[in-house]
Backbone:
């Protein structure tokens, strides 16, 4: 997410980077438990070791060091934290981080939506047949 002041803001000279969603491939190769394990490993790379959560400072520091995203503005980092901070404590715990990663993966979200829809249809289909 780039702010207006960010050097990463898309322009004609610097177009929007192409996003490659690798989570579905990882899920296919690793399975559900393996993917969650890898997301947890990613969380640990970004978290504040003393607090056990991803804070503004830990994300700023580790995004630059680990992910090569040193050009993020303070606004960019704040927006990233706010996007996944469901309990509004100003940080991301491990569950919030994993949920955020799934939410940011369009292909995984679509696959999840299809699975939920199938499960609901199957459950209600079975229920409606039992009532008649």
Residues:
């Amino acid at each position: 997410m780039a702010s207006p002041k960010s050097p990463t803001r898309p322009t004609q000279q610097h177009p929007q980077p192409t996003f490659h969603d690798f989570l579905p491939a990882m899920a296919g190769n690793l399975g559900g438990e393996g993917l969650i394990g890898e997301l947890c490993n990613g969380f640990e790379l970004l978290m504040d070791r003393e607090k056990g959560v991803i804070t503004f400072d830990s994300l700023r520091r580790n995004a630059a060091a680990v992910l090569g995203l040193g050009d993020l503005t303070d606004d960019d980092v704040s927006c990233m934290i706010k996007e996944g901070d469901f309990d509004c404590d100003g940080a991301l715990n491990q569950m919030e981080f994993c949920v955020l990663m799934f939410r940011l993966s369009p292909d995984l979200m679509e696959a999840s939506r299809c699975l939920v829809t199938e499960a609901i249809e199957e459950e209600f289909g079975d229920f409606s047949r039992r009532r008649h």
About this structure: Helices lie at 23-46, 56-67, 74-84, 94-103, 106-131. Confidence is low (pLDDT under 50) at residues 1-9. DSSP finds five helices and no strands in the chain.
